[in-house]
Protein backbone atom coordinates (compact mmCIF):
# COMPACT_ATOMS: atom_id res chain seq x y z
CA UNK A 1 0.00 0.00 0.00
CA UNK A 2 1.37 3.42 -0.99
CA UNK A 3 1.99 6.17 1.52
CA UNK A 4 -0.90 8.22 0.09
CA UNK A 5 -3.27 5.25 0.35
CA UNK A 6 -2.21 4.61 3.95
CA UNK A 7 -2.75 8.26 4.82
CA UNK A 8 -6.20 8.27 3.22
CA UNK A 9 -7.10 5.07 5.09
CA UNK A 10 -5.96 6.56 8.40
CA UNK A 11 -7.88 9.78 7.74
CA UNK A 12 -11.09 7.90 6.90
CA UNK A 13 -10.81 5.75 10.02
CA UNK A 14 -10.11 8.82 12.16
CA UNK A 15 -13.20 10.56 10.84
CA UNK A 16 -15.27 7.43 11.59
CA UNK A 17 -14.11 7.57 15.21
CA UNK A 18 -14.84 11.31 15.30
CA UNK A 19 -18.41 10.72 14.12
CA UNK A 20 -18.78 8.00 16.74
CA UNK A 21 -17.76 10.43 19.50
CA UNK A 22 -19.99 13.19 18.14
CA UNK A 23 -22.97 10.82 18.02
CA UNK A 24 -22.45 10.06 21.72
CA UNK A 25 -22.63 13.77 22.48
CA UNK A 26 -25.86 14.09 20.48
CA UNK A 27 -27.44 11.24 22.46
CA UNK A 28 -26.10 12.52 25.79
CA UNK A 29 -25.72 16.29 25.42
CA UNK A 30 -25.83 17.11 29.13
CA UNK A 31 -22.11 16.82 29.99
CA UNK A 32 -21.10 18.60 26.77
CA UNK A 33 -23.45 21.55 27.30
CA UNK A 34 -22.40 21.77 30.95
CA UNK A 35 -18.77 21.92 29.82
CA UNK A 36 -19.62 24.88 27.59
CA UNK A 37 -21.43 26.84 30.28
CA UNK A 38 -19.29 26.10 33.34
CA UNK A 39 -16.68 28.74 32.33
CA UNK A 40 -19.53 31.26 32.11
CA UNK A 41 -20.35 30.53 35.73
CA UNK A 42 -16.70 31.13 36.60
CA UNK A 43 -16.78 34.49 34.82
CA UNK A 44 -19.90 35.54 36.71
CA UNK A 45 -18.40 34.42 40.02
CA UNK A 46 -15.03 36.11 39.68
CA UNK A 47 -16.21 39.11 37.67
CA UNK A 48 -19.29 39.79 39.75
CA UNK A 49 -18.34 38.63 43.23
CA UNK A 50 -14.61 39.40 43.40
CA UNK A 51 -13.98 41.79 40.53
CA UNK A 52 -14.61 44.91 42.58
CA UNK A 53 -11.90 43.95 45.05
CA UNK A 54 -9.20 43.09 42.48
CA UNK A 55 -7.08 45.83 40.96
CA UNK A 56 -5.95 45.65 37.34
CA UNK A 57 -2.26 46.32 36.63
CA UNK A 58 -1.96 49.77 35.05
CA UNK A 59 -5.65 50.46 35.57
CA UNK A 60 -8.63 49.38 33.52
CA UNK A 61 -11.71 47.26 33.96
CA UNK A 62 -11.22 43.92 35.70
CA UNK A 63 -13.82 42.29 33.50
CA UNK A 64 -11.77 43.14 30.39
CA UNK A 65 -8.75 41.66 32.17
CA UNK A 66 -10.62 38.51 33.19
CA UNK A 67 -12.35 37.48 29.96
CA UNK A 68 -9.23 36.74 27.85
CA UNK A 69 -7.80 34.80 30.79
CA UNK A 70 -10.98 32.77 30.98
CA UNK A 71 -10.66 31.95 27.30
CA UNK A 72 -7.34 30.27 28.14
CA UNK A 73 -8.83 28.66 31.25
CA UNK A 74 -11.60 27.17 29.09
CA UNK A 75 -8.95 25.44 26.98
CA UNK A 76 -7.55 23.90 30.17
CA UNK A 77 -10.96 22.75 31.41
CA UNK A 78 -11.32 20.63 28.27
CA UNK A 79 -8.43 18.46 29.49
CA UNK A 80 -10.73 16.78 32.00
CA UNK A 81 -13.31 15.66 29.44
CA UNK A 82 -10.59 14.25 27.20
CA UNK A 83 -9.04 12.23 30.02
CA UNK A 84 -12.38 10.87 31.19
CA UNK A 85 -13.55 9.86 27.70
CA UNK A 86 -10.32 8.01 26.87
CA UNK A 87 -10.22 6.25 30.23
CA UNK A 88 -13.88 5.24 30.07
CA UNK A 89 -13.42 3.68 26.63
CA UNK A 90 -10.38 1.76 27.87
CA UNK A 91 -12.18 0.56 31.03
CA UNK A 92 -15.20 -0.68 29.01
CA UNK A 93 -13.01 -2.56 26.55
CA UNK A 94 -13.97 -0.28 23.65
CA UNK A 95 -10.36 0.63 22.97
CA UNK A 96 -9.33 -3.05 22.82
CA UNK A 97 -12.13 -3.77 20.35
CA UNK A 98 -10.94 -0.94 18.12
CA UNK A 99 -7.38 -2.29 18.25
CA UNK A 100 -8.58 -5.71 17.12
CA UNK A 101 -10.32 -4.28 14.04
CA UNK A 102 -8.68 -3.78 10.62
CA UNK A 103 -8.26 -0.05 11.05
CA UNK A 104 -5.42 2.44 11.31
CA UNK A 105 -3.66 2.22 14.69
CA UNK A 106 -3.70 6.00 15.01
CA UNK A 107 -7.38 6.48 14.17
CA UNK A 108 -8.71 6.11 17.71
CA UNK A 109 -6.55 8.81 19.29
CA UNK A 110 -6.69 11.09 16.24
CA UNK A 111 -10.47 10.75 16.03
CA UNK A 112 -10.80 11.62 19.70
CA UNK A 113 -8.53 14.63 19.14
CA UNK A 114 -10.63 15.90 16.22
CA UNK A 115 -13.87 15.52 18.17
CA UNK A 116 -12.46 17.36 21.16
CA UNK A 117 -11.15 20.18 18.95
CA UNK A 118 -14.62 20.62 17.44
CA UNK A 119 -16.07 20.70 20.93
CA UNK A 120 -13.51 23.31 21.97
CA UNK A 121 -14.28 25.53 18.98
CA UNK A 122 -17.93 25.62 19.99
CA UNK A 123 -17.06 26.19 23.66
CA UNK A 124 -14.73 29.07 22.78
CA UNK A 125 -17.39 30.63 20.54
CA UNK A 126 -19.89 30.43 23.40
CA UNK A 127 -17.40 32.17 25.71
CA UNK A 128 -16.64 34.93 23.19
CA UNK A 129 -20.33 35.65 22.59
CA UNK A 130 -20.97 35.63 26.34
CA UNK A 131 -18.12 38.06 26.96
CA UNK A 132 -19.45 40.45 24.33
CA UNK A 133 -22.97 40.26 25.76
CA UNK A 134 -21.62 41.03 29.24
CA UNK A 135 -19.79 44.12 28.01
CA UNK A 136 -16.30 42.84 27.25
CA UNK A 137 -14.44 45.27 25.00
CA UNK A 138 -12.37 43.56 22.29
CA UNK A 139 -10.01 45.74 20.29
CA UNK A 140 -7.00 45.11 18.10
CA UNK A 141 -8.80 44.41 14.85
CA UNK A 142 -9.88 41.27 12.99
CA UNK A 143 -6.37 39.96 12.27
CA UNK A 144 -5.36 40.23 15.92
CA UNK A 145 -8.59 38.54 17.00
CA UNK A 146 -8.02 35.62 14.62
CA UNK A 147 -4.46 35.29 15.90
CA UNK A 148 -5.73 35.22 19.48
CA UNK A 149 -8.25 32.49 18.64
CA UNK A 150 -5.49 30.56 16.88
CA UNK A 151 -3.25 30.71 19.96
CA UNK A 152 -6.11 29.53 22.18
CA UNK A 153 -6.90 26.57 19.92
CA UNK A 154 -3.20 25.72 19.66
CA UNK A 155 -3.09 25.47 23.45
CA UNK A 156 -6.19 23.29 23.42
CA UNK A 157 -4.72 21.03 20.72
CA UNK A 158 -1.62 20.54 22.86
CA UNK A 159 -3.68 19.79 25.97
CA UNK A 160 -5.72 17.22 24.05
CA UNK A 161 -2.61 15.06 23.70
CA UNK A 162 -1.80 15.52 27.37
CA UNK A 163 -5.33 14.34 28.18
CA UNK A 164 -5.18 11.39 25.80
CA UNK A 165 -1.88 10.23 27.24
CA UNK A 166 -3.07 10.49 30.86
CA UNK A 167 -6.31 8.73 29.92
CA UNK A 168 -4.43 5.86 28.30
CA UNK A 169 -2.03 5.28 31.22
CA UNK A 170 -4.63 5.75 33.96
CA UNK A 171 -5.88 2.55 35.53
CA UNK A 172 -9.51 3.64 35.52
CA UNK A 173 -11.90 6.60 35.76
CA UNK A 174 -11.23 6.89 39.50
CA UNK A 175 -7.56 7.66 38.79
CA UNK A 176 -8.58 10.41 36.37
CA UNK A 177 -10.74 11.94 39.08
CA UNK A 178 -7.64 12.29 41.23
CA UNK A 179 -5.72 13.87 38.36
CA UNK A 180 -8.56 16.32 37.73
CA UNK A 181 -7.90 17.88 41.12
CA UNK A 182 -4.52 19.07 39.80
CA UNK A 183 -6.20 21.05 37.01
CA UNK A 184 -7.38 23.69 39.48
CA UNK A 185 -3.98 24.55 40.97
CA UNK A 186 -2.51 24.77 37.47
CA UNK A 187 -5.30 27.11 36.42
CA UNK A 188 -5.19 29.36 39.46
CA UNK A 189 -1.38 29.47 39.62
CA UNK A 190 -1.30 31.70 36.57
CA UNK A 191 -2.12 35.20 35.40
CA UNK A 192 -5.71 34.30 34.53
CA UNK A 193 -7.27 35.93 37.60
CA UNK A 194 -4.58 38.16 39.13
CA UNK A 195 -1.22 39.77 38.40
CA UNK A 196 1.63 37.38 39.39
CA UNK A 197 3.40 40.43 40.87
CA UNK A 198 0.88 40.34 43.72
CA UNK A 199 2.06 36.83 44.69
CA UNK A 200 5.12 35.94 46.78
CA UNK A 201 8.23 36.14 44.59
CA UNK A 202 8.83 32.44 44.06
CA UNK A 203 5.13 31.76 43.48
CA UNK A 204 4.83 34.63 41.03
CA UNK A 205 7.80 33.27 39.06
CA UNK A 206 6.08 29.90 38.72
CA UNK A 207 2.88 31.63 37.63
CA UNK A 208 4.74 33.64 34.98
CA UNK A 209 6.19 30.45 33.47
CA UNK A 210 2.83 28.68 33.45
CA UNK A 211 1.86 27.96 29.80
CA UNK A 212 -1.62 29.20 30.65
CA UNK A 213 -0.16 32.60 31.61
CA UNK A 214 1.66 32.91 28.30
CA UNK A 215 -1.50 32.33 26.29
CA UNK A 216 -3.64 34.54 28.54
CA UNK A 217 -1.14 37.40 28.35
CA UNK A 218 -0.71 37.10 24.58
CA UNK A 219 -4.47 37.04 24.04
CA UNK A 220 -4.95 40.12 26.24
CA UNK A 221 -2.43 42.03 24.14
CA UNK A 222 -4.00 40.92 20.88
CA UNK A 223 -7.47 41.96 22.07
CA UNK A 224 -6.00 45.23 23.41
CA UNK A 225 -7.25 44.43 26.92
CA UNK A 226 -5.58 45.45 30.18
CA UNK A 227 -2.94 43.06 31.47
CA UNK A 228 0.18 42.76 33.53
CA UNK A 229 3.45 43.92 32.04
CA UNK A 230 6.10 42.10 34.02
CA UNK A 231 9.84 42.64 33.80
CA UNK A 232 10.92 39.03 33.28
CA UNK A 233 11.91 37.61 29.91
CA UNK A 234 8.90 35.32 29.78
CA UNK A 235 6.54 38.23 30.49
CA UNK A 236 8.08 40.34 27.74
CA UNK A 237 7.88 37.45 25.23
CA UNK A 238 4.46 36.06 26.09
CA UNK A 239 3.34 35.70 22.46
CA UNK A 240 6.43 33.69 21.59
CA UNK A 241 5.91 31.47 24.64
CA UNK A 242 2.22 31.05 23.73
CA UNK A 243 3.51 29.28 20.62
CA UNK A 244 6.51 27.45 22.07
CA UNK A 245 4.77 25.96 25.12
CA UNK A 246 2.03 24.18 23.09
CA UNK A 247 4.54 23.00 20.49
CA UNK A 248 6.68 21.52 23.27
CA UNK A 249 3.67 19.75 24.80
CA UNK A 250 2.69 18.37 21.39
CA UNK A 251 6.24 17.19 20.69
CA UNK A 252 6.29 15.29 23.99
CA UNK A 253 2.75 13.95 24.42
CA UNK A 254 1.64 13.20 20.85
CA UNK A 255 4.36 10.54 20.32
CA UNK A 256 3.82 9.27 23.88
CA UNK A 257 0.09 8.88 23.20
CA UNK A 258 0.66 7.04 19.93
CA UNK A 259 3.25 4.71 21.46
CA UNK A 260 1.12 4.02 24.55
CA UNK A 261 -1.90 3.18 22.39
CA UNK A 262 0.12 0.73 20.28
CA UNK A 263 1.38 -1.00 23.42
CA UNK A 264 -2.01 -1.39 25.12
CA UNK A 265 -2.67 -4.99 25.99
CA UNK A 266 0.85 -5.92 24.94
Task: Give an overview of the whole structure.
- The longest helix is centred in the first third of the chain and has 30 residues, at 62-91.
- The mean pLDDT is 82.
- This protein has one domain.
- By secondary structure, it is mostly helical.
- It has 12 helices and no strands.
- The protein is 76% helix and 0% strand.
- The chain is globular and about 60 Å long.
- The chain has helices at residues 3-27, 30-50, 62-91, 94-100, 107-133, 141-169, 173-180, 183-188, 201-208, 211-222, 233-236, 238-263.
pLDDT averaged over residues: 82
Q: Number of helix segments?
A: 12
Shape: globular
Report the biggest beta sheet as strand number plus sense, adding barrel if it closes. none
> Pairing-aware structural class of the strands and helices?
mainly alpha
What is the domain total for the residues? 1
% residues in beta strands: under 5%
Amino-to-carboxy terminus distance: 26 Å
Percent of residues in helices: over 70%
What is the H/E string?
HHHHHHHHHHHH
* Total number of beta strands: 0
* Rg over C-alpha atoms, rounded to the nearest angstrom: 19 Å
What oligomeric state best describes the polypeptide chains here?
Answer: single chain
Sequence stretches where pLDDT stays below 50 over 5 or more residues: none
InterPro entries: ABC2_TM, ABC2_TM_bact-type, ABC_2_transport, Nod_factor_ABC_transporter
Membrane topology: Multi-pass membrane protein
Family: Belongs to the ABC-2 integral membrane protein family.
Subcellular location: Cell membrane; Membrane
Amino acid sequence: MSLISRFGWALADSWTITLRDLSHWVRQPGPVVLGWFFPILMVLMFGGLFGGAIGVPGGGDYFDFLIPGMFAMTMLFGLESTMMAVTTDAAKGVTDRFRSMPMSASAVVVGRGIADMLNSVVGLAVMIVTGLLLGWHAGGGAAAALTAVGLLLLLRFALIWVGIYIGLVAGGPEVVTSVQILVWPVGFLSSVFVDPATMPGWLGAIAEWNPLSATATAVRRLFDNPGWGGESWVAQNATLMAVLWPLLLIAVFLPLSARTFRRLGG
